[in-house]
Amino acid sequence: MKMTSRDKALLYGSAIPASEITPQSVWRERRRWIKGAAGGLALLGAGVSWAAETPAASSGQPAGKPDEPLTPERLVVSYNNYYEFGTDKADPQRYASQLRLRPWTVSVEGEVAKPRVFELDELAKLAAQEERIYRLRCVEAWSMVIPWTGYSLSHLLKAVEPTADAKYVEFVTATQPQAMPGLSSRILDWPYVEALRMDEAAHPLAMLVFGLYGKPLPGQNGAPVRLMVPWKYGFKSGKSIVAIRLVKERPVTSWMRAAPHEYGFYANVNPDVPHPRWSQATERRIGSGLFASRAPTLPFNGYGEQVASLYAGMDLSYYF
Description:
This protein is of the alpha+beta class.
């Protein structure tokens, strides 16, 4: 998709007008529910071996913390892919203030012993939240490094007790036509649907996110709750989630349905598999400057040591 002049300014580090930066007031609503205090319960399994340790338990260091500076917050909240609001990178910030965030519920259903509808505050407090610094890499070959606040998705999964038939986890995102002008387009079939294999969803690095930079998620970044799967391209991490379904058969996700020759189910970051319309061998950090050199793309976005075993024996050029 052709970049606008504003896209180029953001990508290459030019200043953003103050009028286009999200007001601080947007961030101030809700601090009480980002401090969930549950956790420490034994993880149960049904067809999945659940990891009982935190991602940092083995090394004592925060897992997935890139040894590189954070992307400026002003860029993270103003340069977004969120097609429900529109295809321009500025559209999500332009329209997200219209998103209705209360009341908000997330239903968890399907192949579970305890299907449940969570109120947002209840969901946020299901497990103790922590800050993790993950890289978000988009398939267009640009990336950001962001401090996310949330907890491992595995805490939610064990609360509903998956059955032995639960092989995949499907995520369904919000549709609010009055707030989301992009829903009138035919780019995708709405609502937006993404999915993970059960063992991917259970991995400690897969995260339910409620905030960034120590603040509530803004609408353009997926408020009030989104997924973060740091070893995959950004489109796998569904925003503004309203339903989670555990199912037997592999779901057909939104981008697989729209362009199966371009977007596979796994979407693991893989520099050796080019997108049909561009190379994915290198990446550019948002705001790095026009003349900054591109960095080599790391397999699994740099998390190969933690997650490569999930795909042992698979041909990742075929299962892309």
